[in-house]
Amino acid sequence: MTTNIKDIHKHNRVGPIFRGGELATAAIDALEEDNPDKEFTIEDRAAYIRVETDHECIIRRKTMEEILGRPFEMQELEVILGSFSGQIEAEQEYVRFYFDTKI
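Structure (tokenized):
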């Protein structure tokens, strides 16, 4: 398979790879709520859950708090974040997964 460099931006899948559990389920719900215009692919592989979408997605602290019904710190995601696709921007109020092309 040959990839044309001008078409590489069409294959920019991004997103987290979580270890399972309540926090992962809440994060997936938050992804869907915080990114209503996105279509996600969710692969549950028992040991991990891969969540992907095109180009960019975000998880907001406020949404996690609403879903969990308790205060939430974004650094709690580090415990369940086994890996991710794309690049990551982590702030106190959100975590953003994105793909930035620099050619």
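Residues 22-34 form the longest helix (13 residues). Helices lie at 22-34, 61-68, 77-80.
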